[in-house]
Design a protein that fits this description.
- It is a single chain.
- By secondary structure, the chain is of the alpha+beta class.
- The chain has one domain.
- It contains 3 helices and 9 strands, in the order H-H-E-E-H-E-E-E-E-E-E-E.
- It has a 9-stranded antiparallel sheet with strand order 4-3-7-8-2-1-9-6-5.
- Helix 1 runs antiparallel to helix 2 (34-48).
Amino acid sequence: MKARLGYLAAGAFAVLAIALAVAAVFSYSSHDGGNGGEALSASAQGAQREAIDLHGHRKIEVSRPSGEIARSIEFDNELTGFGVADLVAMLLGYYSSGPWSLAIMSPDASPCPSICRITEPDSSIPDAESRNLVTDNSVENGMRLHGSMIAPNAGEIVFVSTTHEYCEPTVATADCSGSNVVELGTWPRFTTAELPTPLQLEAGHQVIVTVDLVFSIAP
């Protein structure tokens, strides 16, 4: 099942509804008088300070041409400032969300001629190393991106980011691809992460990337 940013927004609304419901219950109970009400009032203040958190987790596996796993690493990623503005703009209906992509980068020793990109099949991004990215809702309250590429050259992975394309708000999300995509010339990062240590690659290594984006209530 293909997932778009709208699915993430739906998850945000669901988590927000839970947070507001909890806050409302505590607020109502605080008016019943007595010490119990005072205790609930204090709890209500805590509930109202809760916020929606988008947690990102990534796993990268590097396998040799024989299929043997050479290295596997897991780490967390952060929602960028643009990613926050991106969610707000989408919730306000300023645009439709389009195909996702993964950007694999190294400032000094990229295994690709430029940024390595793994995109969805219907992405309009040119010169992607691979177009086998799959997005789905196989994780609770979020979405998963999974794809792979073959390293054309030796190099290293230092940063991994997620990006997605855009269409005018009049374009349905299901139709947001190809010629309907707004040409930006660049694709701002939705989430990004720096690996704890650079991941070394040899030409011909397969790089398998899994990214989970999950909403939760954060204190």
